[in-house]
Amino acid sequence: MEPEYIEKGGDMKYHGIDLHKKYATISVRDEAGNEERFVRAQYDIGAYVSSLGSQDAAVLEASSGALYWAERIQSQGASCSVIDAFRFRIIRDSWQKTDRRDAANLSLGLWLASRSKETKLPVIWQPTPVIRELRKLFGLYDLLNKQIRQLKNAIHGALVDNGVRDRAVGTRLTKSPCKGEEMLKEMELSPASRVCILISLALLANLQEQKETLRQEICRAGQPLEAEVKVLISIRGVSPLLALAFLADVGDIRRFPSARRLHAYLGVVPTVRSSGEVTHNGAINRRSRVMSRSLFTQAVIHLVDSSPVMDRFYRQVVARRGYGRARIALLRKIFAIMRRMLLSQELYRWVEPTFYDKKLRDYGRDCKKGEARIVA
User: How many helices (H) and strands (E) does the chain have?
Assistant: First the structure.
């Protein structure tokens, strides 16, 4: 939503702040739109933020640390917005992209937006601290999953190089990496392959342990969203982890006026290219939040079994379009249902009390483990 800059008496100042790792470049304009101050390198950003007040309006580009400083600026009584630099064409299409020009363009865009209703800044939604913390944790969770997959593939590859083509052997090894050394004694492997597999198994065991710790930490960090989690896990196949991934991606569900907007945000709609009377539907849009789409795809089979309606819908789409398109269609349908559930705070129509009660107990236990680890 475009912020409103309301004059409260006195002269308003418009600050364009271009953040860097060690300093910020700042351009300040007065009410007439003239640049009255330029700071090439402000190293103590905290001190500068402390000098702001209710007569100041600031704008930042979306980058590392931007949301943190936006909250600090807003706590001083000043207004602050964070914009999508890719959509802010005055910066993206600049012929000579320099720090001074970027900061000046930011302050100019902010001044124009405050003076004209026809000029709009591409403001991004600012997630709450809870959502930001969850997104950090899920980012690490995704990284651990990628490393685990790489190690498993390396183990399978080493076995194939030594003539072990039965994939079930590698699956047993990776399923119980702590017992892998005993299993390897019965196999004929080259010395290098044996060492590589042993080290990979040790790393895999450690990553799986850290992944479980991280899962408990995610549950603890998501406790402020407990009411929403309890609603979403009433769907068969939606675990507390999946529910928190969805909530971390969407934030406030009320900012999506329709399911179509939600689908576009989560990247479960095709890209569309149209020229004249010809329209081409391409692959799904990957410029989006991807965590929910990635995790929920792994739970498609359970989501299909969540109700007779979902089962019938999935099978019909498979018959017409194939399994790949059917999975995405199912995700669109389940995300739309989850949106309605959150807005109405109602449980899933086909909730299974036995499974639901077990999920609630497991969720409470994981939250307590996370709290106990923090206390320790």
Answer: 16, 7
H/E stretch holding 341 reads helix 323-344
Q: What band does 6 get if pLDDT is binned at 50, 70 and 90?
A: very low
Contacts 24+ apart (CB under 8 A), 293-300: 293/266, 293/267, 293/268, 293/331, 294/142, 295/241, 295/242, 295/245, 296/242, 296/245, 296/246, 296/331, 296/334, 296/335, 297/327, 297/331, 299/237, 299/238, 299/239, 299/242, 300/327, 300/330, 300/331
Contact assessment for residue 89 and residue 95, using Cβ atoms and an 8 Å cutoff: no
Pick the closest to residue 20 from 63, 80, 83, 57 (CA basis).
63
CA distance 221 to 131: 9
Contacts (Cβ under 8 Å, ≥6 apart) of 147: 207
Which residue in 302, 284, 301 sits closest to 293, CA to CA? 284
* Parent domain of 109: 13-115
C-beta separation of 228 from 249 below 8 A = no
Judge whether 233 and 356 are in contact, CB under 8 Å: yes
Does residue 123 lie within any of the structural domains?
no
302 and 206 part of one domain: no
Q: With respect to residue 376, please indicate whether it lies within any of the assigned structural domains.
A: no
| pLDDT-based confidence at residue 280 (cuts at 50, 70, 90) | low
Q: Which two tokens stand for residue 12?
A: 């308003």
Q: Return d(Cα 339, Cα 285) in angstroms, integer.
A: 20
Backbone dihedral region of 284: left (phi > 0), alpha (psi from -120 to 50 degrees) or beta? Answer: beta
Residue matched to tokens 């709009």? 120
My answer on whether 254 and 346 are in the same domain is yes
Q: Are residues 271 and 347 in the same domain?
A: yes
pLDDT digits 0-9 by tens, 69-122: 999 999 999 999 999 888 887 777 777 788 889 999 999 999 998 888 777 888
Predicted model pTM: 0.84
Hey, is 197 helix, strand or coil? Answer: helix
Residue entry with tokens 């089962």: 311
Give the start-end residues of each E strand in the chain.
13-19, 24-29, 35-42, 56-61, 79-83, 270-275, 278-284
